[in-house]
Write a structure and sequence with these properties.
Blueprint lengths: L2 H32 L2 E13 L2 E12 L2 H20 L7 E3 L3 E4 H4 L10 E11 L2 H8 L3 H5 L3 E2 L8 E3 L3 H26 L2 E10 L3 E5 L7 E16 L1
């Protein structure tokens, strides 16, 4: 190979290396740029009113024989149904089977005169009329006057529920995403960058809790989203 050919070949190799080095450098720069991102969280909260209430009315009766016990249990249910009939439809009211305990078998009869059997039964109201239930609760003393022995049971507490989460989900997710972007923009400004597109996003779980211990008929709905945004040079 002649001297001129060697020089041409060497020039072509040098040009190739230079061009390759340029593209490699550009590729590394873009890769480094693509690796620049920030992870932020966005919060959305909303207060809503419960739209379903489950109100168990628990009472107890006693008797020395099971027949009388069942009759007294039925009488209690009739009185409670009559009390509720003015405000609620029959399909909103249900009666659970009574739980019967034999005090003699449990060895708790003692020396005093107490009846052998005790039954605990529950009449439950399930309705969307929250205010009506709360008003009826204030009048349960009328049942006590009729001889219904109401008891407070930790197993049967009133539940207030919110069942329309799907109706507010899209707007709350949008709100949480906007909140996350504001956080990303603040970070970008502080670091001399600007916010690019979304690299990754996780919606998070919705939680529904009582607004406070004294007003369980109002709920707080909360969702936290986690979003990664690319950062670009200004």
């Amino acid at each position: 190979m002649g001297e001129r050919s060697v020089m041409v070949a060497g020039s072509l190799v040098a040009i190739g290396l230079a061009v390759g080095g340029y593209f490699i450098g550009e590729g590394l720069l873009r890769a480094r740029s693509a690796d620049r991102y920030v992870t932020v969280k966005g919060l959305a909260e909303r207060e809503v009113a419960a739209n379903l209430v489950i109100w168990p009315i628990t009472y107890t009766v006693t008797a020395d024989d099971l027949g009388t016990l069942q009759q007294r249990t039925d009488d209690g249910a009739v009185k409670i149904r009559a009390f509720l009939a003015a405000d609620f439809d029959q399909e909103e009211i249900s009666v659970a089977a009574a739980r019967v305990d034999d005090r003699q078998a449990q060895g708790v009869m003692g020396q005093g005169r107490i009846e052998r059997y005790v039954a605990q039964s529950t009449v439950t109201v399930r309705t969307s009329r929250i205010d009506t239930v709360r008003s009826a609760m204030e009048r349960t003393g009328q049942l006590v006057k009729q001889g219904v022995a109401l008891i407070r049971s930790y197993e049967s507490t009133t539940e207030y529920l919110y069942t329309s989460l799907d109706e507010i989900k899209p707007e709350m997710i949008q709100q949480a995403t906007r909140d996350a972007r504001r956080a990303a923009q603040q970070f970008a400004e502080d670091s001399g960058s600007r916010v690019g597109g979304i690299r990754n996003a996780q919606q998070g779980y919705f939680s529904i809790t009582d607004r406070d211990a004294f007003s369980p008929q109002f709920k707080k709905v909360r969702v936290v989203t986690t979003v990664q945004y690319f950062l670009e040079n200004d």
